[in-house]
Every structure is written in C-alpha cells, then in structure tokens.
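Hi F.,

I've been meaning to write this up properly since the lab meeting, where we talked about keeping a consistent format for the predictions we share between groups. The idea is simple: the sequence comes first, exactly as it goes in, then the structure tokens exactly as they come out, then a line or two of notes. No screenshots and no reformatting. I'm using this chain as the first example so we have something concrete to point to.
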Amino acid sequence: MFNEIVVAYKNFWIQAGNFKGLTTRSDWWWVQLINFIISVVTLPFFYKTFGFNVYGLICLVPQIAIDIRRIKDFGKDWKWIFINLVPIIGWLIWWLWMGFGKSGRGKNNFI
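Output, unedited:
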C-alpha cells in the first residue's frame, strides 16, 4: 500500500503537464490525501511567511492536470472541470464523480 501511495504521488509530479491519458480513482484519492496532509503541515509556516499557501499555488497546474485525466477516465469531457465554478452543488458533484465514480472511459459510471 505504501508503494502505491508513493507511485501515485510521484506520477502526480511527473505528469504535471500531461492533460491526456487517464488517472485511476485510487491514484486521485492518494494524491488528494497527500496534498491535504502536506498543506495542513506547511500552511502555518507559509501563511505566516507569505500570507497564503505557497504549496497550494505550486500544485495548481498538476492538480488541474490530474483532475482532467480523472474526468476523462470517468468518461466525461474535460470541460466538465468547470463545474467547480458552481459553489457547493458543483463541488459536491465533482467530488462524487472524481472520488466515487467508476474508472474506465465512462463504463458503468456513478451519476
């Protein structure tokens, strides 16, 4: 399991500019967990020093890339990433699709 986490997080950075291809549900979840932990640990330092979460800013493009790859794996067009602009309802739908939707080019998807 630890190896799976390391591979998922390493691929997150290696494929930072790759908007093509697919990302599995488990890889997406591992990256979210690791990014959350790192943000919680580093946020006090960055907020005190810079006034904002520098780590979150650094992860912006790789996060968009993994989200686009995951939405493709879910079977939706990449433009669905903009559902995040709809407060609360859009975020809820996004997390359901990304975190709980099936993998495999839209076959047997959730919602």
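Notes:
Residues 2-100 form one domain.
The chain has one domain: 2-100.

If this format works for you, I'll send the rest the same way.

G.
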